[in-house]
Amino acid sequence: MRVINGKTTSHMDAAEVAAWMEMHSGITIDLGAGDGRFVRSLAKSRPDRGAIALDLCEANLRAASRTAPANALFVVADALALPDELRGLANRVTVNFPWGSLLRGLIQGEPGLLAGLAALANRQAVIDVVLNGGALAETNWPLEMGAERVVASLRSIGAKVDSPCLVGREDLRDYPTTWAKRLAFGRDPRGVRIVARLG
Ligand SMILES: C[S@@+](CC[C@H](N)C(=O)[O-])C[C@H]1O[C@@H](n2cnc3c(N)ncnc32)[C@H](O)[C@@H]1O
């Protein structure tokens, strides 16, 4: 899979990924990681765990990848066609404020995304998704109905899904991603959090 570190791009094969994983007591994978700050701060706060930021956009990941500790990886890939090297790796998968094909994939139950999610997560993994009202509105879904669609998608891969929780300005302000901060101070600070468990 394609990994970036600042301006450098390299390739990690399955054996290298497995060796990196062995050094950590658990792995979080953040899909649609944006600028990767969430993963960098996770990696700093839990040096014993690995954290992987995955996004389509290489340029956005560069700055955080340059200053992150060694227990963070920054992967350029499409969440709808996840790299095989990541199979069975994650104890926790986060998807924070998805848009574009990632959001549509969750709402429409895109088979590539769901198969990848199921394969990525190990047997007891938690999948933690936070959606925002503005992004859903752009895809013509009201917040609650969009959330229901995502719940149905996660159930279709056998996940047990908690009742979605509404999140507001205060929650967003404390949520450690760049997009959460932007939304917290914007015009539409509504969101919904969906937590699901596999296994
Ligand atoms: C609104 S941003 C949120 C970024 C970050 N999670 C945050 O909270 O700050 C949505 C991100 O999803 C990424 N994205 C959209 N579709 C994707 C896909 N199919 N695979 C990987 N990333 C995707 C975009 O490149 C963008 O960085």
Give an overview in words.
- There is one protein chain.
- With 199 residues, the protein is of the alpha/beta class.
- It is built from 9 helices and 10 strands.
- The longest helix is centred in the C-terminal third of the chain and has 13 residues, at 143-155.
- 45% of the residues are buried.
- The structure holds S-adenosylmethionine.
- S-adenosylmethionine (SAM) binds next to helix 4 and helix 9.
- S-adenosylmethionine is lined by residues 32-34, 55-57, 60, 78-80, 96-102, 177-180.
Our measurement of the CA-to-CA distance between the termini, rounded to an integer number of angstroms, reads 27 Å
The CATH superfamily turns out to be Vaccinia Virus protein VP39
The string of secondary-structure elements, in order, is EEHEHEHEEHHEHHEEHHE
SS summary, helix count: 9
Instruction: Sum up the overall morphology in one term.
Output: globular
**Computed Rg:** 16 Å
The mean pLDDT is 96
User: How would you classify the helix and strand content by structural class?
Assistant: alpha/beta
Q: Classify the helix fraction into a percent range.
A: 25-40%
Ligand kinds:
S-adenosylmethionine
- Tally of separate domains: 1
CATH top-level class:
Alpha Beta
Q: Specify the CATH architecture.
A: 3-Layer(aba) Sandwich
- Major sheet attributes: 8 strands, mixed
> What is the name of the CATH topology?
Rossmann fold
Low-confidence stretches: none
Beta fraction:
25-35%
Q: Would you count the extended β strands for me?
A: 10
